[in-house]
Amino acid sequence: MNVNQLFGPGGPEVGCDECFEQLDRFVELELSGADADAALPGLRSHLQGCPACREEHESLVALLSG
Amino acid sequence: MTAVTVGSVTAVDPRPILDDDSRAWLHDLRADGQAREAALARLHALLLKAARFEAARRRATLTQLRPGELDDIAAEAADDALVSILARLDDFRGASRFTTWAYKFALLETAVKLRKRAWQGREIPLDDEGWTGFATGTLGPSGAAEQRELLTAVQEGIAELTPHQRRVLVALTLNGVPIDVLADRLGTTRGALYKTLHDARKRLRAFVAARGLEVDS
After folding, report:
1. Which residue in A23, A24, A27, A44 has the most chain B C-beta atoms within 10 A of its own C-beta, making it the best mutation to test that interface?
2. What burial class does residue B99 get, using C-beta atoms within 10 Å of its C-beta: 0-12 exposed, 13-18 middle, 19+ buried?
3. Contact criterion met (CB < 8 Å) for A4 and B173
4. Under 8 Å CB-to-CB from A49, ≥6 apart: which residues?
5. Interchain proximity B134–A1, CB inside 8 Å
6. Chain center to CA of B36
7. What single DSSP character describes residue A7?
8. Phi, psi values for residue B4, rounded to 5°
9. What is the pLDDT of residues B39-50, one digit of tens each?
10. How many CB pairs lie under 8 A apart between chains A and B?
11. Crossing angle of helices B141-160/B190-210, nearest 10°?
12. Which of A5-14, B46-55, B106-115 has the lowest mean pLDDT?
């Protein structure tokens, strides 16, 4: 257990619903080598702070990369 | 995404151009008769593939499953994802390929079901019992002192939260309760719970910062 898990990301972040809305585009941008963070600001921070959304992000990346 | 000219200002049209494959999916799913039935069958097969993929990734975290249960959950998740997708078909704007958009529904449905299955029958600690769980044994003497100071501030900061904020923060971050599971038990939504968590974290950060202590970003 890292104490920083308690604090989460410090910067602005989207919520779970917006994360889900944008996740498909975010992952495609990432996999194409584009700057997904610039295109969809706040999503990366949310993934750092939300384990469930992070897992779903990792799964979509893995599925599309397989 | 296309550039459009509005008066003398060039603006970016937020509507991306659909790729051919995505356009074909939408056309077929909105068709009648056999074309639609065939598209539904193809889509369900894709969703089932994604659901089984997610189930396989999570197999190691699940114990005491009855034979065939994992595949049953994947099938149910694919069914539910198909329903969600058809209800939200008009929301698809082509920001990604249609299949990528569809996959995320199957992954979400599967992940949520498996998190709930993993916590089925387990008591969810909703107090701050997990609070004493920080390890300081691996730190050196000065590091341990700094850690103790931070933990003391955190403990006092947590005490300043509202009871709901404290319950949510402790359950999600200290006790590792999945957000979907906690939302289910508390009769709320994942989005609402995350908002509570976000607010609690913000207050805790401010409290600790006011003590002159640093928190990593």
Report:
1. A24
2. middle
3. no
4. A8, A9, A13, B197, B198, B201
5. yes
6. 31
7. H
8. -125, 150
9. 999 999 999 999
10. 99
11. 120
12. A5-14
